[in-house]
Specification:
Elements lengths: L3 E12 H9 L8 E9 L2 E8 L12 E12 L19 E12 H4 E2 L4 H12 L6 E8 L2 E8 L2 E3 L29
Antiparallel strand pairs: 1-5, 1-7, 2-3, 3-4, 4-5, 4-6, 7-8, 8-9
């Protein structure tokens, strides 16, 4: 297993039906993942990796993606702006309630557990390429190299990593607690 996910932030939203179709179409999964169990508990969608390696203990929690499921009214056309009292009769615009899978949050919120974490991140990237709304940004290590990944509204975008000095953490312990000389700790 190569790779590690250091930073991850996601604001992805896509129809739940698209996620289900993605897994129903038997996608090409990373070699470390045999299958993905898709479970829904109330308003939470859980996508859990099933290890291809039989040596991984059945008690080892494998990586899982978590998304909240929300209902959103989708209109066939843009609803008109509210007018004044002179509007005689409002025409109802055709619409439907659509369930969306929302992969929103940082690494621990969206991508949980460390076993098979990087392969499951690759699955998340495939799902992100299907999303028409939201973005996925990440810093990962792949074969010893740090890489940035950014997908915005279903499209791969250029990304880079910039290392900068943070003046707040210059080693002087300016705002932190000095644990070595703390009179409350003996």
């Amino acid at each position: 297993m190569s790779g590690r996910v250091y930073r991850l932030h996601s604001t992805l939203e896509l129809p739940l039906e698209d996620v289900q179709t993605y897994f129903d179409d038997d996608p090409e999964l990373p070699s470390e993942i045999q299958d993905v169990d898709v479970t829904r508990r109330n308003n939470t969608l859980i996508l859990k990796a099933v290890a291809a390696d039989g040596n991984l203990s059945k008690y080892t929690p494998t990586a899982q993606l978590k998304a909240s499921v929300t209902e959103t009214r989708v209109y066939e056309e843009e609803p008109p702006r509210a007018g004044g009292p002179w509007d005689e009769e409002e025409e109802e615009i055709p619409s439907e309630l659509v369930e969306f899978a929302c992969f929103k949050g940082d690494r621990e919120t969206v991508l949980q557990n460390t076993a098979l974490q990087y392969p499951m991140f690759e699955v998340l990237c495939d799902i992100a390429l299907l999303a028409e709304k939201g973005a996925l940004t990440a810093i990962v290590e792949d074969d010893g190299d740090l890489k940035a990944r950014r997908i915005v509204e279903g499209e791969d975008r250029p990304a880079s990593i910039e290392v900068v000095e943070n003046p707040q953490h210059d080693g002087n312990g300016g705002n932190g607690v000095n644990w070595r000389d703390n009179k409350f700790i003996s």
